Amino acid sequence: MAKQSNKLTAKGVKNLSFDVNGAKKQRHPDGSGLYLLIDETESKYWRMDYRRPVTQKYNTLAIGTYPAVSLEQARIKRDEFKKMLADGIDPAEQRNNKKREQIETFENIFSKFAEEWLELRRREGKTDRETIRKLEKDILPFIGKLPVTQLTTEQLERDVTDALVKRDALESARRVKSIINMVLKLPLKRRIITYNPAPDISLPQPIKGNHNAVTDEKELAELLVKTWRLTKDFPRTRIRTELALKLSAYIYQRPNEIRGLVWESVDFENRCLSFAASKTNQDHIVPLSIQAYDILKQLEGLRTTSRYVFPSVKTSSECMSTETLTQVLKRLGFKGRHTAHGFRATARTLLDEEIEYRTDIVEHQLAHKVKDPNGTAYNRTKFLRRRREMMQLWADYLDTLRQGGDVSKFKPDNESENLILFKQNSKTA
């Protein structure tokens, strides 16, 4: 005769209580291995006994506690387990495998590797303020909780980079692609993934070069005139945005260095900026022209509780968005012609080709790694006096160009020397 199943009733289970004269743990069988276990605390637990398919050894499965798991739900679980056993599957092993998969999935989500990658960079002394901002804003909200094993090129394009491309933030898209690529190198190295999908992300190529830049004096004059009229022609534009663009033209440092500039880096007494160059992480000094100094003094008058010279309009704890200047330049009619980063190429080209300033001095001011004949790499104080002269010369040149004046006085000719000796191998300061 077959063993009776479903011996218990819902009402009976509800009314069952611990027998003080009985065992410490009391079983109430329902059949087919399922039973309700009651202990002296009056807690009720669903359990199922069975034989393992291979070893035939007895094992017990925990199904849950009553009333969170009802009698009906416990029976459904029991029937599921019995079907597994009929197929030769051990329910306990199946459950353990699922738990392991869940743990592995959690440990292998993208954000975990991003944190590890940032920590490695911190140990290397690298400053990642802008990288962290891009991770938090453009990457992690979309793929942070996804296992790296599930990421594909198509998904990364659809969920991350396409949105940046649509708003013409191509430089941000390229940076985001680079960050994802570097993060995914960690699980690739550990063979958690066999393929890194990031390098295959398709992005539109810039019209010319990596950073579009105006290098023609007539075009530059147009850009400067429009910049100096920005808040007049577009009244809704913040004055800080106009000042950020002006300062970018005068000091031609990397956009993230300007946007992320903190007040502790501003030295009014010595008329300079001091910070770690974002690309090389080397200490860098930017001498300030009179014009750049005046802009920073104007910004000081607008100073808030934020540590940033150019705080975000949304929160004082962050700096101005990377898209702010991009959108302004687009508004001025320079989409595809000039970028915020392009001011560096503008200065590099015109200081070399038009003003004919010594290339090594220009390169030092750009915080590029430049080796002299003695093999000495970049030095934050090298050519400091000459760089200060150059920065003032550049600011005066821009102002003259903007005002429609004669800029030939800034350029050497065959009959007389310029203000400063250019392109000569003479001793430098």
How is the secondary structure organized here?
Layout (H helix, E strand, L loop, with lengths): L9 H6 L9 E7 L2 E6 L4 E8 L6 E9 L4 H16 L4 H17 L2 H14 L5 H15 L9 H14 L3 H20 L27 H12 L1 H4 L5 H13 L3 H5 L6 E2 L4 E5 L6 E5 L2 H12 L20 H10 L10 H12 L5 H7 L18 H19 L27
Antiparallel strand pairs: 1-2, 2-3, 3-4, 5-6, 6-7
Tell me what portion of residues adopts beta-strand conformation.
5-15%
Strand order of the largest sheet: 1-2-3-4
Q: What would you call the shape? A: elongated
- Tell me roughly what share of residues is in helical segments: 40-55%
CATH topology name of the largest domain, in short, is: hpI Integrase, Chain A
Number of domains: 3
Report on this model:
The protein contains 16 helices and 7 strands. With 429 residues, it is an alpha+beta fold. The protein has 3 domains: 10-100, Double Stranded RNA Binding Domain (2-Layer Sandwich), CATH 3.30.160.390; 110-200, DNA polymerase, domain 1, CATH 1.10.150.130; 217-410, Orthogonal Bundle (hpI Integrase, Chain A), CATH 1.10.443. The strands form 2 sheets. Strands 1-2-3-4 form a 4-stranded antiparallel sheet, covered by helices on one side. It has a 3-stranded antiparallel sheet with strand order 5-6-7. The longest helix is centred in the middle third of the chain and has 20 residues, at 170-189.
